[in-house]
Write a structure and sequence with these properties.
4 strands, 7% strand
């Protein structure tokens, strides 16, 4: 089980690194991956004018300079992700999570998640926009009228809240969080090797 948020760069990195480890894992057919929601900034309800550096500074209670330096470090460390923090559209991720929960196939859900990550961090689109989510949903076969129907309601909010409660019950506060059989917890983004070790520890027996 992978808890994540679309607006968390570490979720983007952690998911990609885990998937690389899984792709090279000899017994990958034994592993069932389930994606779960956790909104890191639930207090953001709409698209904001402020930039992502200011949002992070407020969220972490650090200076604007420190927030910008952190984003610069992430951009350089994970250069292959093409992070474009300066132009990120700060907004709520809740609607994107609602649309994600429409998708019942986990492989298609993973593809949708990747599209939303890229839209937010690289293409700097407003991922709370109905038109953007219609387009991203179409990549995995979602009908635009179905996306609109969910977008304009509170459908799947219960799943989001349940996912959040479940993570808190596991006494895990941050994301991304990787949980195997409710017994092994690996929070945060790690190198591919760490996920390879995690998989080997539980599945190669």
């Amino acid at each position: 089980e992978i808890w994540f948020d679309f607006v968390c760069p570490f979720s983007y990195v952690g998911k990609k690194h885990f998937e690389e480890a899984l792709a090279n894992f000899k017994e990958k057919e034994k592993v069932k991956v389930v994606f779960k929601s956790f909104c890191v900034t639930p207090y953001i309800k709409e698209t904001l004018i402020e930039d992502v550096h200011m949002m992070l500074a407020k969220h972490k209670e650090i200076s604007y300079h420190e927030a910008k330096a952190l984003h610069k470090m992430l951009t350089e460390k994970y250069y292959q992700f093409d992070f474009n923090f300066d132009n990120v559209v700060v907004t709520s991720s809740r609607k994107a999570h609602q649309i994600m929960h429409m998708i019942t196939d986990e492989e298609l859900k993973s593809i949708f998640i990747d599209h939303v990550f890229k839209a937010y961090f690289v293409d700097n689109l407003d991922i709370s926009s109905l038109e953007v989510l219609k387009e991203l949903g179409s990549y995995v076969g979602l009908k635009k009228e179905d996306v609109e129907a969910v977008y304009n309601t509170e459908m799947f909010l219960g799943e989001i809240f349940d996912n959040t409660d479940e993570l808190e019950e596991l006494n895990l506060k941050g994301i991304p969080a990787f949980v195997i059989d409710k017994r092994f917890y690996l929070p945060g983004a790690h190198p591919v090797s760490a996920y390879s070790e995690m998989l080997a520890s539980f599945y190669q027996k």
